[in-house]
């Protein structure tokens, strides 16, 4: 197990280095002076400032030296400086990371929980109206643009009905502490987490349903029936457990999508996470910050994949035997 | 062919999807005739609610632009970006997957590590970075979408080619002295067509979603009206004018849904044995 984790960790680090190299070339491929790109193409940049930047980043040196300097600074967790926000990029990201983690983990739990439940119900009632209904709803959520679903949720639950706040992370200036503050954040979390979760729920519903129907045709299910187990028990204890494995694999692969979804959801709900930070970087043309967020989100995805890989091996002992 | 239609038509959802898609294509083709004025032109006072004026059925946006005209003109952008970016990602993914599956060994190793790299990068974030750095334009959007969506094509192709490679007709081709290129191009690839077609229809749908998300974030081409852009522009006035964001979103939903339904129908029609499983 330790060797397996070490191997995966090594792979993740190699991928991260490749992403950093990709970033480096993107800065150089961008139209215009790399120094100006890093400075966020601020309109007021004067020649002296740009010259200082060039020296600081070694932009007057050959390309391979520049790449080396860039890699070295990223390894030292120095993602550069956001000249627009007047803060180091890493500080800005660290400040926003908890909100994103809260949002994406809640959305992940919601989507996986509801998805598996609905998928299991649909497969148990295969061909009946409840199956058709669940499959249809999943198909529709699967085709809905995430940002539009979020906007419509704000319109309905926040503007029209006034049930839930549709904006921000907590009530500004309310001065809540302790449990009151936690409840306040929770009420702000409901809409963004649900809208982000519903899209992915659709994916898991379809996968769970297909997977359970496939497991249903296997011999050990026949055996279970033959020995007189109740259908509910067979579905829960025998079919669902085996059908979940591909769903867990898929969930691991979906982590990257979740980060992308968070950019859109955080933008709509003004949720102060790194997705919103990415949007701010976009609108201010702050490329250094943009690339920093990109590296960190990629690192988050890699870490998440690593965790699911390990979990997967813990859940299913057969994998250890085959590999 | 007749068989194909019979099987396709047996899937009711697929037929509905086809009807919707044909309607969207017709709308985009008719846009220049129905709305000869530029969709950017200010034609009336802003914030006219929908279904109140016959001339502006869907109302106007905060700039006094005709929403129906924007929708009609935006349809062609969505369809075009979806189609072209899918073709480009097929052009990247098919050779990579085919070479990896056919030659195996170190070729397979190298190409699959390369594919894996693109799969482990958060795809939408990469698309955002690419479009932002290379400046938003139809070309950069199409290329960015293609770059983030080709890995599934390569993986599918690799699997298909690997299973076809050991079949007798390929062995016969090898024995008759055909070159690798001829075997891949003339013997193997035609047999992988049906799964590619099914995947491609789903990819067009996904590409339309990515394009609209990029435009929504302000990364659309400034010269063309697109559905995502209209929603993004209507976002700030959602309290006063829900319709500006509502209709283009519904249009995206319907188009993407139609394409996914068609994909399932194609799957039933082209892989009849496979699709019966899980039904």
Automatic annotation (TrEMBL), chain A:
Q: Where would you find this protein in the cell? A: Cell membrane
Keywords (alphabetical) are: Cell membrane, Membrane, Transmembrane, Transmembrane helix, Transport
Q: Does the keyword Transmembrane apply?
A: yes
UniProt keyword annotation of Amino-acid biosynthesis present: no
**Which sequence ranges are marked TM in the entry?**
12-30, 99-121, 133-157, 185-205, 243-269, 289-312
Q: Which family does it belong to?
A: Belongs to the binding-protein-dependent transport system permease family.
Domain annotation ABC transmembrane type-1: ranges: 97-312
GO annotations of cellular component type: plasma membrane
One matching Pfam family = BPD_transp_1_N
Q: What is this protein called?
A: Peptide/nickel transport system permease protein
TrEMBL record, chain B:
- Where is this chain's protein located in or outside the cell? Cell membrane
Q: Where are the transmembrane segments?
A: 79-103, 124-150, 196-220, 241-262
User: What is the protein's membrane topology class?
Assistant: Multi-pass membrane protein
Residue span(s) of domain ABC transmembrane type-1? 75-263
| Key word Ubl conjugation present | no
Gene3D superfamilies linked to this entry: MetI-like (1.10.3720.10)
Q: Which InterPro entries match?
A: BP-dependent_transpt_permease, MetI-like, MetI-like_sf, OppC_N
Q: Which residues form a coiled coil?
A: none
User: Which top-rank group of organisms is this from?
Assistant: Bacteria
Q: What is this protein called?
A: Peptide/nickel transport system permease protein
Q: Which organism is it from?
A: Allorhizobium borbori
């Amino acid at each position: 197990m330790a060797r397996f984790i070490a191997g995966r960790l090594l792979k993740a680090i190699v991928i991260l280095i490749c992403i950093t190299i990709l970033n480096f070339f993107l800065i150089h491929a961008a139209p215009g002076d790399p120094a100006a790109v890093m400075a966020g193409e601020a309109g007021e940049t004067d020649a002296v400032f740009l010259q200082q930047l060039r020296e600081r980043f070694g932009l007057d040196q050959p390309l391979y030296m520049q790449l080396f300097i860039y890699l070295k600074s990223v390894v030292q967790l120095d993602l550069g400086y956001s000249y627009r926000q007047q803060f180091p990029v890493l500080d800005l990201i660290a400040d926003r990371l908890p909100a994103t983690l809260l949002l994406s983990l809640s959305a992940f739990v919601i989507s996986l929980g509801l998805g598996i439940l609905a998928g299991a119900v649909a497969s148990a009632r295969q061909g009946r109206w409840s199956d058709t209904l669940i499959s249809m709803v999943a198909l529709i959520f699967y085709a809905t643009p995430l940002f539009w679903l979020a906007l419509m949720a704000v319109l309905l639950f926040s503007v029209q009905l006034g049930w839930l706040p549709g904006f921000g992370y907590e009530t500004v200036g309310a001065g809540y502490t302790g449990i009151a503050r936690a409840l306040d954040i929770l009420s702000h979390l409901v809409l963004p987490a649900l809208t982000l979760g519903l899209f992915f729920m659709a994916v898991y519903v379809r996968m769970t349903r297909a997977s359970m129907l496939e497991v249903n045709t296997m011999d050990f299910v026949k055996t279970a029936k033959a020995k007189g187990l109740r259908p509910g028990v067979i579905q829960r204890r025998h079919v669902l457990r085996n059908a979940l494995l591909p769903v867990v694999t898929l969930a691991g692969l979906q982590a990257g999508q979740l980060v992308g979804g968070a950019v859109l959801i955080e933008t709509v709900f003004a949720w102060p996470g790194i997705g919103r930070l990415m949007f701010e970087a976009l609108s201010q043309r702050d490329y250094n910050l943009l690339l920093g967020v990109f590296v960190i989100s990629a690192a988050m995805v890699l870490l998440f994949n690593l965790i699911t890989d390990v979990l997967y091996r813990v859940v299913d002992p057969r994998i250890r035997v085959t590999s | 062919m007749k068989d194909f239609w019979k099987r396709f038509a047996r899937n009711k959802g697929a037929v509905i999807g086809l009807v919707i898609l044909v309607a969207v294509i017709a709308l985009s083709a008719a846009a220049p005739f129905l709305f000869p004025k530029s969709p950017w032109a200010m034609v009336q006072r802003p914030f006219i609610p929908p279904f109140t004026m016959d001339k502006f059925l869907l109302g106007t946006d905060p700039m006094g632009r005709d929403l129906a005209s924007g929708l009609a003109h935006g349809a062609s952008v969505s369809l075009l970006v979806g189609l072209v970016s899918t073709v480009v990602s097929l052009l990247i993914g098919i050779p990579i997957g085919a070479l990896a599956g056919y030659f195996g060994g170190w070729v397979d190793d190298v190409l699959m590590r390369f594919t894996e790299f693109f799969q482990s990068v958060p795809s939408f974030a990469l698309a955002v970075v690419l479009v932002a750095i290379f400046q938003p334009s139809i070309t950069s959007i199409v290329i960015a979408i293609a770059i983030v969506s080709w890995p599934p094509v390569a993986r599918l192709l690799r699997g298909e080619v690997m299973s076809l490679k050991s079949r007798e007709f390929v062995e016969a081709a090898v024995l008759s002295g055909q070159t690798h290129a001829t075997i891949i191009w003339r013997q193997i690839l035609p047999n992988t067509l049906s799964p590619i077609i099914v995947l491609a229809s789903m990819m067009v749908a996904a590409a339309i979603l990515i394009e609209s998300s990029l435009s929504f974030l302000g990364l659309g081409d400034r010269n063309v009206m697109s559905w995502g852009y209209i929603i993004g522009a209507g976002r700030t006035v959602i309290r006063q004018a829900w319709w500006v964001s509502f209709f283009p979103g519904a249009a995206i939903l319907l188009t993407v849904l139609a394409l996914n339904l068609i994909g399932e129908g194609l799957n039933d029609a082209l892989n009849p044995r496979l699709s019966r499983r899980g039904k």
